[in-house]
Write a structure and sequence with these properties.
Blueprint (H helix, E strand, L loop, with lengths): L1 H20 L9 E11 L23 H18 L7 E7 L2 H9 L8 E4 L10 E7 L4 E8 L14 E8 L2 E9 L7 H25 L4 E7 L7 H7 L1 E2 L10 E3 L14 E3 L2 E3 L2 E6 L9 E2 L5 E3 L6 E3 L6 E3 L3 E2 L2 E2 L9 E7 L1
Parallel strand pairs: 1-2, 7-8, 9-10
Antiparallel strand pairs: 1-20, 2-4, 3-4, 5-6, 6-7, 8-13, 10-13, 11-12, 14-20, 15-20, 16-17, 18-19
Helix pairs in contact: 1-2, 2-3, 4-5
Amino acid sequence: MKTWTTVFLVLFLAVHEAYCQQPSSAEKPLLQVMFWNTENFFDPFNDSTVNDEEFLPGALRAWNFKKYETKRNHIYQVIAAIGGWDPPDVIGLAEVENRFVLNDLVTNTPLAKYNYRIVHKNSPDPRGIDVALLYREDRFRVIDKRYFPVYNAGGKIERTREILYVAGITGHDTLHIFVNHWPSRAGRKNDSELKRCHVALTLKSKTDSLLRRNPKAFVLITGDFNDEPTDESLIRCLGAKTDTAGAQSNGLYNLSALLSLNGKIRGTHKYEGKWAILDQVIVSGSLLQKGKHICTDASKLSVFAPDFLLEKDDRWMGYKPFRTYNGMQYQGGYSDHLPVIIKLVRK
């Protein structure tokens, strides 16, 4: 009881801060979609099928059940605060280890009353980190779900996170969601860029196929792309445009390229003093066209960055995301990424 009382007090302050951060809007969103790379949401149990040894009680990080519960409660706190007492309807997550941590999150925290459903499968990633989707069944009715493997130039499956595709009905409209976590920038620059381009081409083949069948399909792509909106993987390989002027219904448009960020943050991730917008939302042009259907625009996309998700950056100045670990030192923070959220309305 003491734990949840503490969480509630922190959450109350967080929600109040979130309301003060965001201007009020007369438009009530039809659907709120959130994405967050949770950074190593691991349970403390050994899984012999993946390389999770770093997050075990006997490892250097001394990961244990208490630290795991703190991480779980932090994720709940952010989800609850981001919706201002009405949590997001659809939540894409990255860097989750397995279904156990997801089930624990939605059943053993106060999120249980929102009846979140889970879409998840274990990925080929060697570390066992996956992408997943949580959704509120009363707001978003899933009608299709698939995981698409990523193939390299030789036609072999890459050992990386698969692309999650979920189609669901909201109101009278069908929304097609793709959740991504592209390969990291670690290693040789050219090699990592090529890997991200392979994922982008896989994603493009799926969106092209969908938009050929229905040029007016409502498509929303989100995730941690480990590239910025103007990088080659997103511009050339995926074909996501950074300017929505004259948007065509069957084109892809990166709303994150139009984000207006100021104050303490300049992106969703900070590395060696440099902010980057790695966590993004891309939509088909049909979602930018107003009508008697769901729609959105760049003004409805935001980065959630309340003070409790940030800490002072003593080395590079300014602020940075408040992480669970600083190097190998446990500090009980949240993640190295900030969440993004987009609101869909009907006009």
